[in-house]
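Now read this:
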Amino acid sequence: MKREEFSDICPYDDSEFQEKIAGLVKEPGFEHAVKYVMPDVDYQEFAKGLMTINSQEAFQINVMLPFLQMLVKKTTSGISASSFENIDNTQSYTFITNHRDIVLDASFLNMCLVENNFPTCEVAIGSNLLIFDWIKDLVKINKSFIVKRNLPMLQALKAAKQLSAYIYFAVNEKKQSVWIAQREGRAKDSNDRTQESLIKMMGLEGPGNLLENLLAKKLAPISISYEFDPNDYLKAREFLLRKNNPDFQKSERDDLFSMETGIMQFKGRVHFGAGKCINSQLEGLKDVEDRNEVIRRVCAIIDKSIHLGYKIYPINYVAYDELCGGQRFRTCYSDEELNAVNKYLDHQLSKIPDVTDEDYAYMRNMMLEMYANPLRNKLVAEGAE
């Protein structure tokens, strides 16, 4: 395999870096985005500094890392990580995670990797998010590769094979870890499940059959837990709109607002829990002859690892008890925390204007579902439910 086979989807290499940066700093859209997330920035000085950078690694260390550290300070109560001893920093993996934030899941993961003495990973990003050429250039200089979306069937199969081959190439020939979410789009109710289509794609290309191709990609699940989801009220509103109109479709503007909200609004505590590479469990599937059964079992293995790795916060316990109408986890949160959760939910829902009492109750219930589901899934994974 050669990099040229993947030139339309793979990250830019360092030989292209300065040309792409020079074009990027001239883009009004990029300037607007920089000023939005860094209101006090002197853009001309910022652009001049960017022009001195000549590699992906230098860009990530000198530009992205300070930016992310600023975001962590302004929009979280801190990021923690656990169990990174489960993975080997001399190996390359396909990190597969649940999906909470469009932009920050992979960015915060890369921070955790650096802090645990791992190299940063390349990041899968859907082509549907690359609504401007400058966004495509920005993500490709920041170690992202493109997942082509919304294609006709034959083109979709060709794109899936190319993506599968690229992930194999990155992990095994470039010795570069990659990140991909367990599903296309976020699980709006936080009931995280691996899409079978993702595992089918992973199994398309590599050294042999489906299982051999999966083994070669070294899948390593990682669990992401946000205490608060800044988009929770937007997701609740979307549930309501779909209930009232099953054909409802979000606009491009809706997606952009979700991205901005996820980046800039408060997330509370954020935790990354690393699971073990699942290859030893995949080895146990060698005698399963039914291909579809193999795919189902692989999804179940990934899901269980992710569910076991969740960090559970007071809001998760409160949501579970309120939905179940019981006191099962009453010792896991104080009266003060209970009041704070209810105040938070009311505050988020107050951002949605002109709703009836019935609609308000429905959306509040959907928000409780979002916060209860990680706890429910962890209990099932632990055999406690």
